């Protein structure tokens, strides 16, 4: 089993408008495919899906993105671009964990943590912040993900000690791999007004129906909540999409009302049902 993992961002504006904004900021940016509904891009070596038309969810800091730099000059330029017309959450400054670090929201509400770091190998890394009812569950979630998804491992797990800023034993900073891709996690016992939602989801692209069944059924068995069209929340409230690798090809038929009726009625994706509808 070798399913890929992409990150899906669900914007209020169109996917094209979002794509144009980030393409103007990031030099390492490749448009892989685009249609009126979706833009598939590769940003700083990581695959993203941009969806447009979100009208019931907004971005929040529960999932942010670390941008890793080797030079202050490059970091400061990106900071200026991303924080413009946005909001600063932590001022760009020197901190115990980095010689230069800052946390901001861009004008779309996406959170970015920019830092100088000399050992993390990837340029962009999703970070999960476990708050509210998920506070205290970060380590459990990391162990769950790394057991469920092949080619995964925990690389670092640092906990708060007494007097260090949060509840003793909470995860202060964790680094782990899912399908050989880097992720970061931490948790907070403070009264944050945000939690995971559908604005940011992780997309597992499966090679066949057996893989779809495995991930979907595992999330359900372990306490996840199913939704429509391959969307599902895991036991910790993080949103995932479990889709076949030919999903892009299938969705070229979004103007076919019969196909869309079948698709929109699905929870777990049934590849044969979609293909049979097209062929029948």
UniProtKB/TrEMBL annotation:
Ranges of residues in domain PhnB-like: 4-114, 122-243
One Pfam family hit: 3-dmu-9_3-mt
Any GO BP annotation: methylation
Coiled coil: none
Molecular function, one GO term: 3-demethylubiquinol 3-O-methyltransferase activity
Known EC number: 2.1.1.222, 2.1.1.64
Keywords on record: Methyltransferase, Transferase
Gene3D superfamilies: 2,3-Dihydroxybiphenyl 1,2-Dioxygenase, domain 1 (3.10.180.10), 3.30.720.100, 3.30.720.110
EC main group: transferase
The keyword Chaperone is annotated on this UniProt entry: no
Alphabetical list of PANTHER family matching this protein: PROTEIN YJDN-RELATED (PTHR33990)
Name by which UniProt lists this protein: 2-polyprenyl-6-hydroxyphenol methylase
Biological source species: Aquirufa nivalisilvae
Phylogenetic classification of the source organism: Bacteria, Pseudomonadati, Bacteroidota, Cytophagia, Cytophagales
């Amino acid at each position: 089993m070798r399913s890929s993992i992409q990150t899906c961002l669900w914007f209020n504006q169109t996917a094209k408008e979002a794509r144009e904004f980030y393409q103007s900021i990031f030099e390492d940016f490749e448009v892989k495919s685009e249609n009126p509904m979706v833009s598939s891009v590769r940003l700083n070596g990581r695959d993203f899906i941009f969806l447009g038309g979100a009208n019931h969810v907004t971005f929040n800091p529960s999932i942010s993105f670390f941008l890793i730099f080797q030079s202050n000059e490059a970091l400061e330029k990106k900071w200026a671009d991303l924080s413009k017309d946005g909001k600063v959450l932590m001022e760009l400054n020197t901190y115990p964990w980095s010689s230069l670090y800052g946390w901001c929201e861009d004008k779309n509400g996406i959170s970015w943590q920019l830092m100088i770091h000399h050992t993390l190998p990837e340029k962009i890394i999703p970070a999960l912040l476990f708050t509210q009812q998920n506070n205290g569950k970060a380590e459990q979630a990391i162990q769950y993900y790394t057991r469920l998804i092949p080619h995964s491992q925990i690389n670092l797990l640092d906990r708060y000690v007494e007097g260090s800023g949060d509840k003793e034993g909470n995860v202060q900073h964790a680094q782990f791999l899912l399908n050989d891709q880097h992720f970061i996690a931490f948790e907070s016992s403070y009264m944050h007004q945000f939690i995971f939602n559908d604005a940011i989801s992780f997309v597992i692209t499966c090679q066949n129906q057996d893989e779809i069944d495995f991930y979907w059924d595992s999330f359900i068995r372990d306490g996840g909540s199913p939704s429509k069209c391959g969307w599902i929340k895991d036991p910790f409230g993080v949103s995932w999409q479990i889709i076949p690798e030919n999903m892009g090809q299938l969705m070229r038929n979004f103007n076919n009302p019969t196909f869309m009726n079948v698709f929109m009625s699905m929870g777990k994706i049934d590849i044969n049902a979609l293909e049979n509808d097209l062929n029948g």
